[in-house]
Design goal:
The complex is a heterodimer of chains A (111) and B (215).
Chain A: H1 2-24, E1 27-28, H2 29-39, H3 48-60, E2 64-69, E3 78-83, H4 85-109
Antiparallel strand pairs in A: 1-3, 2-3
Chain B: H1 3-13, H2 18-37, H3 42-49, H4 52-62, H5 65-97, E1 100-103, H6 112-128, H7 131-136, H8 148-158, E2 165-168, E3 172-178, E4 181-192, E5 196-203, E6 209-214
Antiparallel strand pairs in B: 1-3, 2-4, 3-4, 4-5, 5-6
The chains are: A alpha+beta (111), B alpha+beta (215).
Chain lengths: 111, 215
Protein backbone atom coordinates (compact mmCIF):
# COMPACT_ATOMS: atom_id res chain seq x y z
CA UNK A 1 0.00 0.00 0.00
CA UNK A 2 2.77 2.37 1.06
CA UNK A 3 4.67 1.65 -2.19
CA UNK A 4 1.66 2.57 -4.34
CA UNK A 5 1.04 5.90 -2.59
CA UNK A 6 4.72 6.71 -2.57
CA UNK A 7 4.92 6.14 -6.33
CA UNK A 8 1.91 8.35 -6.99
CA UNK A 9 3.26 11.16 -4.79
CA UNK A 10 6.69 11.05 -6.36
CA UNK A 11 5.18 11.00 -9.85
CA UNK A 12 3.12 14.07 -9.00
CA UNK A 13 6.16 16.24 -8.22
CA UNK A 14 8.52 14.93 -10.90
CA UNK A 15 7.82 17.62 -13.51
CA UNK A 16 8.49 20.32 -10.92
CA UNK A 17 11.74 18.71 -9.75
CA UNK A 18 13.10 18.19 -13.27
CA UNK A 19 12.32 21.79 -14.24
CA UNK A 20 13.92 22.97 -11.00
CA UNK A 21 17.13 21.09 -11.74
CA UNK A 22 17.26 22.58 -15.23
CA UNK A 23 16.62 26.10 -13.97
CA UNK A 24 20.27 26.82 -13.25
CA UNK A 25 21.94 25.11 -16.23
CA UNK A 26 21.57 22.77 -19.20
CA UNK A 27 22.01 19.16 -18.24
CA UNK A 28 21.96 15.71 -19.86
CA UNK A 29 19.68 12.89 -18.71
CA UNK A 30 22.09 10.86 -16.62
CA UNK A 31 23.32 14.05 -14.99
CA UNK A 32 19.73 14.90 -13.93
CA UNK A 33 19.34 11.42 -12.40
CA UNK A 34 22.59 11.72 -10.42
CA UNK A 35 21.93 15.25 -9.22
CA UNK A 36 18.38 14.42 -8.16
CA UNK A 37 19.69 11.48 -6.16
CA UNK A 38 22.47 13.47 -4.47
CA UNK A 39 20.49 16.62 -3.66
CA UNK A 40 17.50 14.64 -2.31
CA UNK A 41 19.86 12.40 -0.31
CA UNK A 42 18.60 9.32 -2.14
CA UNK A 43 14.91 10.05 -1.59
CA UNK A 44 14.51 10.59 -5.32
CA UNK A 45 16.50 7.81 -6.93
CA UNK A 46 15.05 7.87 -10.42
CA UNK A 47 15.29 5.17 -13.02
CA UNK A 48 15.97 6.12 -16.63
CA UNK A 49 12.68 4.58 -17.57
CA UNK A 50 10.93 7.10 -15.31
CA UNK A 51 12.93 10.21 -16.20
CA UNK A 52 13.08 10.05 -20.00
CA UNK A 53 9.35 9.80 -20.66
CA UNK A 54 8.94 12.89 -18.42
CA UNK A 55 11.62 14.77 -20.38
CA UNK A 56 9.97 13.84 -23.70
CA UNK A 57 6.62 15.07 -22.39
CA UNK A 58 8.07 18.32 -21.07
CA UNK A 59 9.70 18.86 -24.45
CA UNK A 60 6.45 18.25 -26.32
CA UNK A 61 4.74 20.74 -24.00
CA UNK A 62 7.44 23.27 -24.87
CA UNK A 63 8.77 23.51 -21.29
CA UNK A 64 12.22 22.14 -22.18
CA UNK A 65 14.28 22.00 -25.36
CA UNK A 66 16.86 19.40 -26.23
CA UNK A 67 19.88 19.11 -28.48
CA UNK A 68 22.41 16.39 -29.19
CA UNK A 69 26.05 17.28 -28.77
CA UNK A 70 28.74 15.10 -30.28
CA UNK A 71 31.23 13.84 -27.73
CA UNK A 72 34.90 14.81 -28.01
CA UNK A 73 37.21 12.06 -29.16
CA UNK A 74 35.81 8.66 -28.15
CA UNK A 75 33.03 10.08 -25.97
CA UNK A 76 29.50 9.20 -26.97
CA UNK A 77 27.11 11.99 -28.02
CA UNK A 78 24.93 13.39 -25.25
CA UNK A 79 21.44 14.81 -25.32
CA UNK A 80 21.27 18.05 -23.35
CA UNK A 81 18.07 19.50 -21.93
CA UNK A 82 17.48 23.18 -21.32
CA UNK A 83 14.51 24.89 -19.67
CA UNK A 84 12.64 27.29 -21.95
CA UNK A 85 11.02 30.59 -21.00
CA UNK A 86 7.68 28.84 -21.01
CA UNK A 87 9.26 26.21 -18.73
CA UNK A 88 10.44 28.91 -16.29
CA UNK A 89 6.95 30.38 -16.16
CA UNK A 90 5.46 26.93 -15.63
CA UNK A 91 7.99 26.20 -12.85
CA UNK A 92 7.04 29.41 -11.07
CA UNK A 93 3.36 28.48 -11.25
CA UNK A 94 3.91 24.89 -10.17
CA UNK A 95 6.12 25.98 -7.27
CA UNK A 96 3.38 28.32 -6.06
CA UNK A 97 0.85 25.49 -6.30
CA UNK A 98 3.25 23.23 -4.43
CA UNK A 99 3.62 25.71 -1.56
CA UNK A 100 -0.13 26.18 -1.33
CA UNK A 101 -0.75 22.43 -1.32
CA UNK A 102 2.04 21.85 1.23
CA UNK A 103 0.48 24.35 3.60
CA UNK A 104 -2.92 22.74 3.16
CA UNK A 105 -1.52 19.24 3.73
CA UNK A 106 0.37 20.34 6.82
CA UNK A 107 -2.77 21.82 8.31
CA UNK A 108 -4.79 18.69 7.53
CA UNK A 109 -2.18 16.34 8.95
CA UNK A 110 -1.98 18.22 12.26
CA UNK A 111 -3.38 16.30 15.14
CA UNK B 1 20.88 -10.35 -21.60
CA UNK B 2 23.30 -8.25 -23.63
CA UNK B 3 23.13 -4.48 -23.87
CA UNK B 4 21.95 -4.75 -27.47
CA UNK B 5 19.20 -7.23 -26.63
CA UNK B 6 18.10 -5.11 -23.64
CA UNK B 7 17.71 -1.99 -25.77
CA UNK B 8 16.16 -3.92 -28.68
CA UNK B 9 13.54 -5.50 -26.41
CA UNK B 10 12.66 -2.13 -24.89
CA UNK B 11 12.25 -0.53 -28.31
CA UNK B 12 10.06 -3.39 -29.53
CA UNK B 13 7.57 -2.69 -26.76
CA UNK B 14 7.44 1.07 -27.16
CA UNK B 15 4.51 2.10 -29.32
CA UNK B 16 5.76 5.20 -31.09
CA UNK B 17 7.05 6.15 -34.55
CA UNK B 18 10.45 5.23 -35.93
CA UNK B 19 12.13 8.63 -35.44
CA UNK B 20 11.25 8.79 -31.76
CA UNK B 21 12.39 5.19 -31.27
CA UNK B 22 15.76 6.05 -32.81
CA UNK B 23 16.10 8.97 -30.40
CA UNK B 24 15.18 6.78 -27.42
CA UNK B 25 17.67 4.15 -28.58
CA UNK B 26 20.44 6.74 -28.81
CA UNK B 27 19.53 8.06 -25.36
CA UNK B 28 19.60 4.63 -23.74
CA UNK B 29 22.87 3.69 -25.44
CA UNK B 30 24.47 6.92 -24.23
CA UNK B 31 23.38 6.38 -20.64
CA UNK B 32 24.52 2.78 -20.58
CA UNK B 33 27.85 3.75 -22.12
CA UNK B 34 28.45 6.47 -19.52
CA UNK B 35 27.75 4.08 -16.68
CA UNK B 36 30.01 1.42 -18.25
CA UNK B 37 32.75 4.04 -18.46
CA UNK B 38 32.34 4.62 -14.72
CA UNK B 39 33.13 0.95 -14.18
CA UNK B 40 29.64 -0.41 -13.57
CA UNK B 41 28.74 -3.89 -14.79
CA UNK B 42 25.95 -4.07 -17.34
CA UNK B 43 23.79 -6.29 -15.11
CA UNK B 44 23.85 -3.62 -12.39
CA UNK B 45 23.16 -0.90 -14.93
CA UNK B 46 20.12 -2.74 -16.24
CA UNK B 47 18.84 -3.21 -12.69
CA UNK B 48 19.29 0.52 -11.96
CA UNK B 49 17.70 1.62 -15.21
CA UNK B 50 14.70 -0.65 -14.83
CA UNK B 51 13.40 -3.81 -16.47
CA UNK B 52 12.46 -3.91 -20.15
CA UNK B 53 8.78 -3.89 -19.22
CA UNK B 54 9.13 -1.08 -16.67
CA UNK B 55 10.93 1.20 -19.09
CA UNK B 56 8.62 0.44 -22.02
CA UNK B 57 5.44 0.81 -19.91
CA UNK B 58 6.75 4.11 -18.57
CA UNK B 59 7.33 5.46 -22.07
CA UNK B 60 4.01 4.18 -23.37
CA UNK B 61 2.11 5.85 -20.50
CA UNK B 62 3.58 9.23 -21.44
CA UNK B 63 3.17 8.99 -25.20
CA UNK B 64 1.23 11.78 -26.86
CA UNK B 65 -1.75 11.15 -29.15
CA UNK B 66 0.51 12.20 -32.04
CA UNK B 67 2.99 9.42 -31.13
CA UNK B 68 0.22 6.86 -30.85
CA UNK B 69 -1.22 7.87 -34.22
CA UNK B 70 2.20 7.60 -35.85
CA UNK B 71 2.65 4.14 -34.36
CA UNK B 72 -0.77 2.98 -35.52
CA UNK B 73 -0.16 4.40 -39.01
CA UNK B 74 3.19 2.65 -39.23
CA UNK B 75 1.69 -0.63 -38.12
CA UNK B 76 -1.19 -0.35 -40.59
CA UNK B 77 1.24 0.37 -43.42
CA UNK B 78 3.29 -2.67 -42.51
CA UNK B 79 0.19 -4.87 -42.55
CA UNK B 80 -0.88 -3.49 -45.92
CA UNK B 81 2.58 -4.04 -47.37
CA UNK B 82 2.60 -7.59 -46.07
CA UNK B 83 -0.79 -8.34 -47.59
CA UNK B 84 0.26 -6.83 -50.94
CA UNK B 85 3.48 -8.84 -50.88
CA UNK B 86 1.61 -12.08 -50.13
CA UNK B 87 -0.85 -11.37 -52.93
CA UNK B 88 2.00 -10.65 -55.33
CA UNK B 89 3.68 -13.92 -54.40
CA UNK B 90 0.43 -15.86 -54.83
CA UNK B 91 -0.17 -14.24 -58.23
CA UNK B 92 3.37 -15.02 -59.32
CA UNK B 93 2.96 -18.65 -58.25
CA UNK B 94 -0.39 -18.96 -59.98
CA UNK B 95 1.01 -17.38 -63.16
CA UNK B 96 3.86 -19.88 -63.07
CA UNK B 97 1.74 -22.91 -62.31
CA UNK B 98 -1.41 -22.33 -64.35
CA UNK B 99 -1.13 -23.49 -67.97
CA UNK B 100 -1.07 -20.91 -70.73
CA UNK B 101 -1.93 -21.71 -74.32
CA UNK B 102 0.00 -20.31 -77.29
CA UNK B 103 -1.12 -20.78 -80.92
CA UNK B 104 1.27 -23.00 -82.86
CA UNK B 105 1.99 -20.23 -85.36
CA UNK B 106 3.39 -18.17 -82.47
CA UNK B 107 5.30 -21.04 -80.88
CA UNK B 108 9.10 -21.15 -80.84
CA UNK B 109 9.13 -24.84 -79.93
CA UNK B 110 6.42 -26.53 -82.04
CA UNK B 111 4.82 -26.32 -85.44
CA UNK B 112 1.70 -27.81 -86.96
CA UNK B 113 3.54 -30.11 -89.42
CA UNK B 114 5.80 -31.67 -86.76
CA UNK B 115 2.86 -32.12 -84.37
CA UNK B 116 0.71 -33.74 -87.04
CA UNK B 117 3.55 -36.09 -87.98
CA UNK B 118 4.11 -37.11 -84.36
CA UNK B 119 0.41 -37.59 -83.65
CA UNK B 120 -0.15 -39.63 -86.81
CA UNK B 121 2.81 -41.88 -85.92
CA UNK B 122 1.57 -42.27 -82.32
CA UNK B 123 -1.94 -43.26 -83.37
CA UNK B 124 -0.57 -45.63 -86.02
CA UNK B 125 1.53 -47.42 -83.37
CA UNK B 126 -1.43 -47.40 -81.00
CA UNK B 127 -3.68 -49.02 -83.58
CA UNK B 128 -1.00 -51.66 -84.35
CA UNK B 129 -0.62 -52.22 -80.56
CA UNK B 130 3.14 -51.70 -81.03
CA UNK B 131 3.61 -50.49 -77.48
CA UNK B 132 7.36 -51.11 -77.48
CA UNK B 133 7.85 -48.62 -80.30
CA UNK B 134 5.46 -46.25 -78.53
CA UNK B 135 7.60 -46.51 -75.39
CA UNK B 136 10.69 -45.63 -77.42
CA UNK B 137 9.14 -42.34 -78.45
CA UNK B 138 7.79 -41.54 -74.97
CA UNK B 139 9.06 -39.86 -71.84
CA UNK B 140 10.27 -42.09 -68.98
CA UNK B 141 7.13 -41.23 -66.98
CA UNK B 142 4.89 -42.48 -69.79
CA UNK B 143 6.69 -45.74 -70.49
CA UNK B 144 5.31 -47.81 -67.58
CA UNK B 145 1.76 -46.90 -68.68
CA UNK B 146 2.19 -48.03 -72.28
CA UNK B 147 1.46 -51.73 -71.83
CA UNK B 148 -1.08 -53.85 -73.64
CA UNK B 149 -2.95 -54.43 -70.42
CA UNK B 150 -3.31 -50.74 -69.61
CA UNK B 151 -4.13 -49.74 -73.16
CA UNK B 152 -6.73 -52.52 -73.57
CA UNK B 153 -8.37 -51.36 -70.38
CA UNK B 154 -8.40 -47.78 -71.64
CA UNK B 155 -9.83 -48.82 -75.00
CA UNK B 156 -12.56 -50.82 -73.30
CA UNK B 157 -13.70 -47.65 -71.51
CA UNK B 158 -14.57 -46.17 -74.93
CA UNK B 159 -15.92 -49.25 -76.66
CA UNK B 160 -15.41 -53.01 -76.54
CA UNK B 161 -14.27 -53.60 -80.12
CA UNK B 162 -13.23 -50.56 -82.06
CA UNK B 163 -12.77 -52.32 -85.36
CA UNK B 164 -10.37 -51.04 -88.03
CA UNK B 165 -9.63 -47.38 -88.55
CA UNK B 166 -11.79 -45.71 -91.13
CA UNK B 167 -10.55 -42.14 -91.13
CA UNK B 168 -8.64 -39.50 -89.16
CA UNK B 169 -10.03 -36.04 -88.72
CA UNK B 170 -8.24 -32.73 -88.63
CA UNK B 171 -5.54 -32.28 -86.05
CA UNK B 172 -5.92 -29.24 -83.80
CA UNK B 173 -2.81 -28.21 -81.92
CA UNK B 174 -1.39 -25.56 -79.58
CA UNK B 175 1.59 -24.97 -77.29
CA UNK B 176 0.94 -25.21 -73.57
CA UNK B 177 3.26 -23.55 -71.06
CA UNK B 178 3.12 -24.73 -67.46
CA UNK B 179 5.63 -24.27 -64.65
CA UNK B 180 8.17 -23.01 -67.17
CA UNK B 181 7.87 -26.10 -69.40
CA UNK B 182 6.63 -26.13 -72.99
CA UNK B 183 4.36 -28.83 -74.39
CA UNK B 184 2.83 -29.41 -77.81
CA UNK B 185 -0.72 -30.63 -77.42
CA UNK B 186 -2.99 -31.92 -80.14
CA UNK B 187 -6.48 -33.29 -80.45
CA UNK B 188 -7.87 -35.41 -83.28
CA UNK B 189 -10.99 -37.51 -83.73
CA UNK B 190 -10.41 -40.87 -85.38
CA UNK B 191 -13.29 -42.86 -86.76
CA UNK B 192 -13.19 -46.64 -86.41
CA UNK B 193 -15.67 -49.19 -87.66
CA UNK B 194 -17.42 -49.38 -84.29
CA UNK B 195 -16.32 -46.26 -82.47
CA UNK B 196 -15.40 -42.65 -82.82
CA UNK B 197 -12.44 -41.85 -80.60
CA UNK B 198 -10.90 -38.52 -79.73
CA UNK B 199 -7.18 -38.63 -79.00
CA UNK B 200 -5.65 -35.95 -76.84
CA UNK B 201 -1.85 -36.22 -77.11
CA UNK B 202 0.89 -34.21 -75.40
CA UNK B 203 4.55 -33.93 -76.45
CA UNK B 204 7.51 -32.36 -74.69
CA UNK B 205 10.07 -30.05 -76.31
CA UNK B 206 11.93 -33.11 -77.63
CA UNK B 207 8.72 -34.37 -79.25
CA UNK B 208 8.53 -37.29 -76.83
CA UNK B 209 5.03 -38.48 -75.99
CA UNK B 210 4.28 -37.07 -72.53
CA UNK B 211 0.54 -37.67 -72.31
CA UNK B 212 -2.12 -39.81 -73.93
CA UNK B 213 -5.84 -39.48 -73.29
CA UNK B 214 -8.69 -41.09 -75.24
CA UNK B 215 -12.42 -40.60 -75.07
Amino acid sequence: MKGKFERQMRKGVLDMLVLKLLQSETKYGYQIIQEMKEKSENIFSLKDGTLYPVLYRLEEDGLVASRWEEGEGKKVPRKYYEITDKGRDALAEITEVWHTISVGISKLMED
Amino acid sequence: MTKEAYIKNILKKIQCGRDKKKDIQKQLETDIHMRLEEGEAFADIAREMGSVKEIADSFNEELSEKDRKQYRRGRTLKIILLVVLCLAVICAILYWVLPKAVPLEDSRYFNQAALEEAMTKTIDLFDKEDYDSLKNMSTPDMQPVLTKETMDSAKAQVAQNWGSRVSMGQIYGAELIQSGKHFGVGEVTVTYENASVTFHLTYNEDMQLAGLYIR
